[in-house]
Write a structure and sequence with these properties.
The chain is 43% helix and 23% strand. The protein has 305 residues and is α/β, with parallel strands linked by helices.
């Protein structure tokens, strides 16, 4: 059986799976809704299987459609990687590198992207704030090329890793707070003051909760946020304190009315690193970012700031 499928049909299918709506998918693809529906039907006829469950609206993909979608994403990724390789052969990498970054590492990511862009001026970079779970899933679904996440706390599958630095934790609190002026504080002491923390879907929050459990403490923060900026705002203008990575204060600064106190007993530390899909052929842009970052000493860079 000879299958004749073109790249645009696969792009339409991926857009439909992401938008879950024919009109929105058509708008994303800059075509009319009837055209998109017609091209999806042509794809079904060419492959000889139903791909989309239809009623008066989009319901979802069939079992066969889910498998076709997986192959579509692989094929489109390979096409993109081919374009990247050819651009490198013609005189320099070009294209767009999409990075998924855990919120706690967002202040640090410019230390990676700045030297990379100097070496590869033809590459554009998109940085997206994502949870560790989203980063791993989106890598496997070819929605991002590279991630910055924890590499030693929860199992990672089918990825290449490059450790960058150790994330240590500090109590960020008012200079007028009950623990102000201390050289260090314990997790047990931190558990007794009003806290705002990241939401429970964040791996950083799971790390913090585990630290409290190790000293037989449970915390129920009054305020939760899915960004460190949200936490910082509540600490600065409210009566809460928070547990943040030490790198946040180093890269962003805290202002005059806040201080960062290292949390010990126990001393918690986790490795943050780059991850990329362990597939062949690899993404040329992801490989270039891995190679450029391997030349950096982030621990030394952070300590010098």
């Amino acid at each position: 059986m000879e299958i004749r499928v073109n790249i645009r049909q696969l792009q339409f299918l991926v857009a439909l799976s992401q938008e879950k709506h024919f009109a929105r998918a058509a708008a994303v693809c800059n075509i009319s809704q009837p055209t998109l529906s017609s091209r999806i039907r042509q794809l079904e006829e060419e492959l000889g299987v139903p791909i989309v469950e239809r009623d008066k609206r989009y319901i979802g993909l069939t079992v066969e459609g889910t498998r076709v979608l997986e192959w579509a994403k692989r094929i489109l990724a390979d096409c993109e990687f081919l374009e990247q390789e050819l651009s490198e052969l013609k005189g320099g990498l070009s294209g767009r590198l999409t990075m998924g970054v855990i919120p706690s590492a967002l202040p640090v990511v410019s230390l990676l992207t700045s030297p990379f862009c100097e070496t590869h001026p033809g590459v554009k970079i998109t940085v997206l704030s994502r949870t560790s779970v989203q980063i791993e899933r989106q890598l496997h679904n070819f929605e991002i090329e590279i991630g910055v996440t924890y590499v030693d706390n929860e199992p990672l599958k089918h990825v290449k890793t490059l450790p960058l630095y150790q994330e240590n934790y500090v109590l960020v609190t008012s200079t007028q707070g009950p623990l102000a002026g201390r050289e260090t504080v314990s997790w047990e002491e931190v558990s007794r003051i009003p806290l705002c923390l990241l939401t429970s879907d964040m791996q950083n929050r799971r790390i913090v909760d585990d630290a409290f459990r190790q000293v037989n403490c449970e915390v129920a923060p009054q305020v939760e946020a899915n960004s460190i900026t949200g936490l910082y705002s509540h600490v600065r203008f409210g009566h809460w304190s928070s547990v943040l990575p030490q790198t946040y204060g180093t890269m962003v600064g805290l202002g005059d009315n806040l201080e960062a106190i290292p949390i010990t007993a126990p001393l918690m530390s986790h490795s943050v690193g780059l991850i990329a899909s362990d597939r062949d052929p690899p993404s040329p842009l992801a490989s270039a970012m891995m190679a450029a970052t391997a030349k950096l000493d982030l621990t030394d860079l952070l300590s010098s700031l």
